[in-house]
Amino acid sequence: MQDMEHLSVISPKVVLFVKKNAEETSSGNALVIIECSAEQNHGDRNNHESASKQMDVSKIVNELKMQESSFKSNLWEAVERLMFIKRNEISSLEDFLISVKDCGAAARGNKVNQATKSHTASTTDSDKKHSAASTSRSHKKRALCHRTGPLLPVEMVEHLRKRIGSATKIVHVEDIGARNAVHVEVPQELSENLRSVLHSIGITQLYSHQAESIQASLTGKNVVVATMTSSGKSLCYNLPVIEALSQSSSSCALYLFPTKALAQDQLRAFLAMTKGFSGSLNVGIYDGDTNQQERTRLRQNARLLITNPDMLHVSILPHHRKFGRILANLRYVVIDEAHVYNGAFGCHTALILRRLRRLCSHVYGSDPSFVFSTATSANPREHCMELANLPTLELIQNDGSPAARKLFILWNSEDSAIEDISFLFAEMVQHGLRCIAFCKTRKLCELVFCHTREILQETAPHLAESICSYRAGYIAEDRRRIESDLFNGKLSGIAATNALELGIDVGHIDVTLHLGFPGSIASLWQQAGRAGRRERPSLAVYVAFEGPLDQYFMKHPNKLFGSPIECCHVDAKNQQVLEQHLACAALEHPLSLFYDGKFFGSGLNSAIMSLKSRGFLSYDPSCDSAAKIWNYIGYQKMPSHSVSIRSIERERYKVMDDQEKEIEEIEESKAFFQVYEGAVYLNQGKTYLVTSLDLSSKIAWCQKADVNYYTKPRDRTDIHVVGGNVAYPAPAKLSNQFSRTTARADPCRVTTTWFGFYRVHKGSNMIFDKVNLALPKYTYTSQAVWVPVPRSIIKAVESKQLEYRAGLHAASHAVLHVVPLRIICNLSDLAPECADPHDGSYFPERILLYDQHPGGTGVCVQVHPFFMELLATALELLTSCHCREDDGCPNCIQSFCCKSYNEVLHKDAAIMIIKGILDANISSDSSGS
Ligand SMILES: Nc1ncnc2c1ncn2[C@@H]1O[C@H](COP(=O)(O)OP(=O)(O)OP(=O)(O)O)[C@@H](O)[C@H]1O
């Protein structure tokens, strides 16, 4: 009985002991009960060893209840609740005692309290002997139970340090100092109307950048406002627009927001601002949620139309005559959050804006000014000029807004990042700090929400309902409700995906938590920018996962805080996308080589020829031959309907509960990651079990469940190179020694297979069951660029005792990293073929990149001519990177988008493979010449 610690005298007959280092019971408990008499209690424990029983907590509690019915029920409740909630976490007597202490007044007012006091004192020494990890866990519990009342965000760092003790997880604190405002008087040229608008929202002075930008816009210049998050960028476009609309009763404006939520938010702000406004501004949102009646009303009356690029593409431009009044009088086009228009989506938006400007010019004789805003782009001017094909653009970036101090903590989790962020989330809420916990995936978002709520139910039940989750997939009504609850202060915390990253005004937020690196430094700042608005000090905590990418930033904080944010890229010359939009443009208004070159660039001629040969365009011989007019003659009535600008899928699975209520719709490509028979499915913190999946009607039926595990699909993505000609030939002139490239560009078939799932214990994250499933595969055709690896190289790598597969995996990541050095693209458009680290079966011997969008956006075809040069650049990258680890760093072989979580990478093997391919290529080149 030396390993027993006295827990409490529960009754004259029963004493609870914790068995130190006990083997876990089936439900993961290490509690032992000693049954004895009151006198025996004070005797030698060894005498009663035979009476000890180790069993499930549930059985213990029931047995104790039966034996001791006279005991106070509220204490039972407390103990029971505690045991169930904490089942895997009771690592020391102190943990348990602290938790008991927190379990209500009843528990504190009786014998347990006395036992608690004496044993808290007596176990302090033994606690010191605990390992660092268990000490930190113990401190964590103490933190959870410790309520000191409201704290300021900046006080939280010290508080956390005290709570988690010496085994600190805080590896770095970046102190981002406050910035003073640079105010200027409201410019003289602003009308009385505008002054009264400002007055009505309590603004007496402008920030310097606002005045600069407003003045430029009022004189008709195109402007990009590139200042910090929460720097008052909305005013930079709202004021000139209100001015224009109030000066002329016919003037109109168009606002483009990338999300519906943002559009709603901005409409709210605009209406609040113009509440007492004398003139009629007629503002409205025209998006997929707008009903027919409202659409008609807006087409007839709106002067400020708030929409998105998708609506512009499929509805407004193809039916432009119905919007003729607005287009003819268009004074301003506002594009908020310009950094979102990046990569493939940016490329499509760039062509949509060209279609808009062309119609304004050719059909309606208008030439609107553009106002862009962005907080997180390293090249705002270059990016926005390319986006709208503008000859000039005024860059406003001298930020005159004030900012309060922000502390940015890097938190390296020793055990579970999910548990840590949940603990931090609960801790913030308990100290009166409003908080958003950003999670990378929908599932993580639900898990963090559930964990945090469990903690709060235990430690501060009155706060358990004050948190919520928010992610894509929720029905619009739920999202609007959550947004407004957060705005109104009904909610004090929210676990969210990047759906909440853009500038929705969610009221004041004190703290942002970030679970894992969100994919770009720009995105991390964008998320962190949600807190500390309105000059309040704030806190951000980046909680790292175990993966190499997060660990890299934990080791090198300067790579986060000292590096510039990423550039935004769009490639409006992408031949494939250009042709898709030219077909749409030709339907909207006939195309002319003569008049349209300035909108669509030098690729116009060859794109028209290609469309002609494919039966989309025909030349109108009746027109003046110099103007060369081309009409749309394609078989599709509305070509824009088949051009998906965000790869939005039409095929979706519905998730229904047993009351036949729809809970969510999930895109087909993502459905089986979430719903399959036996899956634990989470939605807004509720746990469901998927009882059946009807593949024909695409419905997943589920019912509420109370389970202590989650499920994880087992899946694999295979690339099958189909062969044959690619749609677009490589440019004739290829450069230097790699002209006889062995790289190929081919159509490919991308197939994701789900072959089952794991059941994983919630607390321990241990897999305890493996289930096989037969689900339909998800397949789409796309394009790939690839190069085979000669057998001799594989042998050479293996002869050095290096892992060939790890080298191949690392090499494809390195090649992916250098693609943006040669072409303008978004890295998420492309993906490398990643070897499944847990699958030892055949894997193709090649380095391959494929286009992630069904049908492909043409990036691989563009890459093909210089693929071997990319290999040479990748080799330079690897050999010049001084990181020492075999599995490299994010600067060389680790990739954020790796589907195999950067497992099984080897830098030296990658160097050998790339070098080998290049050597083989040069020798085949010289032997062939
Ligand atoms: N000149 C000003 N004086 C005082 N407060 C201002 C001024 N201009 C704007 N604000 C306030 O600053 C807050 C942030 O403004 P806004 O939402 O326009 O910022 P933003 O730069 O668009 O933010 P985000 O980057 O998140 O989209 C608002 O509450 C707004 O009322």
Give a written overview of the molecule.
With 929 residues, the chain is of the alpha/beta class. The chain has 6 domains: 2-120, no CATH class; 153-176 and 403-561, Rossmann fold (3-Layer(aba) Sandwich); 183-396, Rossmann fold; 575-642, Arc Repressor Mutant, subunit A; 652-707, no CATH class; 718-753 and 778-928, no CATH class. 38% of the residues lie in helices and 20% in strands. It is built from 33 helices and 34 strands. The strands form 7 sheets. Strands 5-15-20-19-16-18-17 form a 7-stranded mixed sheet, with helices on both faces. Strand 30 and strand 31 form a beta hairpin. It is globular and about 75 Å long. The termini are far apart. 46% of the residues are buried. Bound molecules: adenosine-5'-triphosphate. Residues 203, 206-207, 210, 229-235, 375, 503, 505, 529, 533-534 line the site of adenosine-5'-triphosphate. Residues 111-124 have a biased composition (Polar residues). Its EC number is 3.6.4.12. InterPro entries: DEAD/DEAH_box_helicase_dom (IPR011545), Helicase_ATP-bd (IPR014001), Helicase_C-like (IPR001650), HRQ1_WHD (IPR055227), MZB (IPR018973), P-loop_NTPase (IPR027417).
